[in-house]
Write a structure and sequence with these properties.
single chain, 335 residues, alpha/beta, 2 domains, nine-stranded mixed sheet, three-stranded parallel sheet, 27% strand, elongated
Amino acid sequence: MKIHYFQRYHAKENVATANTMLLLSRLYSYSSDKFFRFLKSEFFSDAFEPEIVFNLQEKSTKSIPDATITQESFKIVVETKMSDWFYSDQLLRHWKSFGDEKYKVIITLAPELMAPEKKKEFDEQLKKYNATQRYPVMHVNTTFEGIIDAIRDVIDDRDYEMQEVLDDFINYCYNDKLIIVSDSWKRMRVQLAGTTFNFNISENLYYDDIERGFSAHDYLGLYKEKSVRAIGKINAIITAVTTENGLEYKAELGELTEERKQQIDRAREDGKNYGYVLDATRYFFVEKFYETDFRKITPRAPMGSRVFDLTQILETEKLPETAEIAKLLKFKTWG
């Protein structure tokens, strides 16, 4: 049985906040450098410099000490909602939570971003307040998925422990409906598929452990030998769990057909060739896998999955058919 790091099935703001703070504390414990990179990323601001700084012979008013070790003060206040249900008067009261810190950040966190008019109203009030302060308060409006993406950007493929924690947080967010899947149409999830690659291509399906968390995506890419070698558009996602009465199926997307049941049976048999026991598995069915060559130009294979925004990779606002995407990716690279 997989051990979970985060509480589940508690659709309450305090649990969502606690789990998010646990994620960030795990990142800090794992690597303070990566935690501060997260704080300094575009998620906050390049001007946000809270980490310890070592200086030699730094001039002060009356002396030049041999060395100094400093850390600028900062405070982050988080307000979590289960929907875009923020109230300006409540947020304004949070300003009193700050003292004389140099860096002050208030994060409004929810499954969806604040409505533009609501954010504009609050930011205008904040601007007036900041005009009276020595150090201004920065407002960051984000989502649970936004935090996931920001952390994914600072951890490496070989950060196995942190990748596992992040995967479980993603799984928690989907269980508690904290991630909205409206932009899945432009996302491609890349999975390692070395040993099963030929089977995946022939059956137009990929399988993974049912406990593995994942963000919503319409496209699936298969990675092998330093490159994404195939891409397909998902048309069904089905889980199959072994019980006393046989396999228990659940269609998470698309229909459970007899043909797909047979494909699952073939996958279970094929998995035995590699020592896989597919007793609790999620199966991703695609319309068709198309050959491509989306090359990774940095060393080492990725650990686990990677998610790409195809509109950014292909520099377009509207995606073409899958076969054309496969052709265009041959002229692109990633690191």
